[in-house]
Amino acid sequence: MLDLFGDPSPGSPRLLAEGAWLLPGFATGPGRALLTAIGTVAGHTPFRQMETPGGGRMSVAMTSCGHLGWLTDRSGYRYGVVDPVTGQPWPTMPLILAELAARAAGAAGYPGFQPDSCLINRYAPGTRMGLHQDRDEADMAHPIVSVSLGLPAIFLFGGRTRTGPVQRVPLHHGDIVVWGGPSRRFYHGVAPVAAGEHPLAGPFRYNLTFRRAG
Asked: Does the pTM of the predicted model rise above 0.85?
């Protein structure tokens, strides 16, 4: 069987904080196949700019796959088994995505990770993600695995409070950040994405965020 992943980490891992690692280029090899999988998911559950509890619209377009999908609307932030746009369950997580998440988590010191949710964010130039915590999951013992594809971005990685110091971490196509344990609830976000054209992803940055939500 063809190994789509190839060399699992062409760059040296970088410790960002206790329990948090940057894995440079970990997903570069299967990048084209990962983008194909994203297209398949979006064909069933289209990207959309979700409404926030305050009534605004997120600048980033989103969709999900796996048993649970992440949702936001005036009712708040939560996970659900049904896409409210299609009225159908979220698509099954493509095997290549689940395998990548498990391998990345293992490389960062979190063996046995089995995600049941993958939130897919599509960033157009100028879009951003404000500092926030991932805290809607039922069990915080599992890490977050975040895969970057397409245009580069600056990942903002803070600490336990929104007002604390923030690292500005450049992310490129194929880079993965994994955080858990002591840093599981650290604040994080993405600075506005600069305009550009990626040979595989075109004018977009895609971010795959894997979680054990249920």
From this structure: yes
